[in-house]
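re: the backbone from monday

yeah here it is again, tokenized this time
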């Protein structure tokens, strides 16, 4: 049987990024970061990363508008497909957190 590949989460460069929460799912510690986009303060870029190693994928990127719209959903689709509990947690945090 083939081993599942493991990947390491990478913290974003400290260029306006804010760490907003940490939590664990399935024995993996996750960290969520965000920053406002330069062109429009209502658009935010998020990075979800494993704090250590995770199977299959350890870094997820997506954008979100304060009106509730998501963009750059490729990673969100992967997250919803392979880690649905984590995706639900992220959706709840993003929609409830004061990101001003």
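seq for it, each position gets an aa:
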């Amino acid at each position: 049987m083939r081993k599942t590949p493991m990947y390491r989460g990478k913290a974003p460069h400290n260029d306006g990024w804010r760490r907003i929460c940490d939590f664990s799912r399935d024995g993996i510690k996750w960290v969520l970061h965000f920053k406002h986009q330069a062109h429009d303060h209502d658009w935010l870029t998020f990075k979800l990363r494993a704090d250590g190693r995770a199977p299959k994928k350890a870094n997820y990127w997506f954008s979100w508008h304060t009106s509730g719209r998501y963009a750059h959903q490729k990673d969100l689709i992967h997250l919803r497909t392979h880690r649905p509990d984590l995706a639900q947690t992220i959706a709840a945090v993003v929609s409830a957190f004061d990101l001003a």
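The longest helix spans residues 84-96. The chain has a mean pLDDT of 91.
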